[in-house]
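Posting for a labmate who doesn't have an account.
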Amino acid sequence: MRLIPDFSNIQLSRREKIMILAGALVVSLVAADRLVWSPWRQYGRKLDKSLSELSMQAQGQEMLLSRQASVRAEVAAYKDFIHPSRSPELEMAEFLREIEELGRQSNVSLPEIKPLPTNASQYFTEFGLEVRFEAGLLDWMKFVYQTESSHSLFVIDKASAARADANSEMLKGSMQIRKMVLNDDSIEALK
C-alpha cells in the first residue's frame, strides 16, 4: 500500500494546469505575506514608532540642554554680583556706602538716609533705604541713572521731587531704593 498517490499518469487539460498554477501562486503569495511581509511590515512600524518616540525625546532633551545653556550663561553674566553672604549689618553698611558714593559722583547732596526694614526670605534678603536729596535736575537725573545701572542692581521703587523754592533751580525730594542679595542656599542651587 502506497501512502503517496502516483500523479504521473494523470492527464490534465491546459485549463486545469493553469488553474493549479494560479492556485499554487495564490497559496504561495498568501504564505509569503503571512510569513515574510506582514512580520516585516510590523517590525518596520514598530521601528518607525520607536524612532519617532526617540526623536521626540531627543527634541525634549535638546530643548532642556538649550535652556540649561542659557541659564548658565545668565549665571555667568551675573557672576560678578554673586558673592558670599555677609551679615545683614555689613550688607546694609555696604549699601549705604555705595549710595553715598553714587551721590558724590553725581553731585547730589544726601542730607538724610534712613534704612527701611529688611525683608528676608528663604532665597534672598531685601534691603531698603529712604534717601532725601537736594540737587539740580541734571545732577538728580545722573544720580537716578547711576543708581539704576549700578553693578549692585539697585532698584528705585518710589521717587518724588519738587523745587526747593519758587525761584530756585534746586530740587528737593525723596526716593526709596531697594537692593536684593541672594542667600548662600540660592547661590549653591545656581551652580
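Reply:
Got it, the C-alpha cells are right above this. The first strand starts at residue 109 and ends at 120.
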